[in-house]
Amino acid sequence: MRKRTVIKGSGDVFADLGFSPAESRNLRLWSQMMTALRKFIEKEGLTQADAAKRLKVSQPRISDLTRGKISRFSLDTLVNMLSDAGLEVDFRIKLPSRRVA
Predict the structure, then answer these.
(1) By the 8 A CB rule, do 51 and 41 touch?
(2) For an engineered disulfide with 87, which of 2, 26, 42, 82 has Cβ 3.0 to 4.6 Å away?
């Protein structure tokens, strides 16, 4: 039997997968928006066809969303879909926290 090694993650799956800090933040934002849309569709009990009408996109776009096809969506498209779902998108910019030596 092989011995298994467990490595504790950093708390940022994208960074742990080797993405740069900038790519990590971008992917995290995309992921959060897509997750919010999937939860909305599930909570409302919408079929893909109904969700497409409500979010003003095609049914194949909803299929892409539910399958997590992140590369098929721009942030702009996701913001528009969230707005059409009646969800508020909150955006903020802040300085990074500084570590004290």
Answers:
(1) yes
(2) 82
* 87 neighbors 40 (Cβ within 8 angstroms): yes
Length reported for the chain: 101
Contact 63, 48 (CB under 8 A): yes
Which H or E run includes 81?
Answer: helix 75-84
Q: What is the pLDDT along the chain (101 residues), one digit of tens a residue?
A: 788 888 888 888 888 999 998 999 889 899 999 999 999 999 999 999 999 999 999 999 999 999 999 889 999 999 999 999 999 988 888 887 776 65
pTM score, whole prediction:
0.79
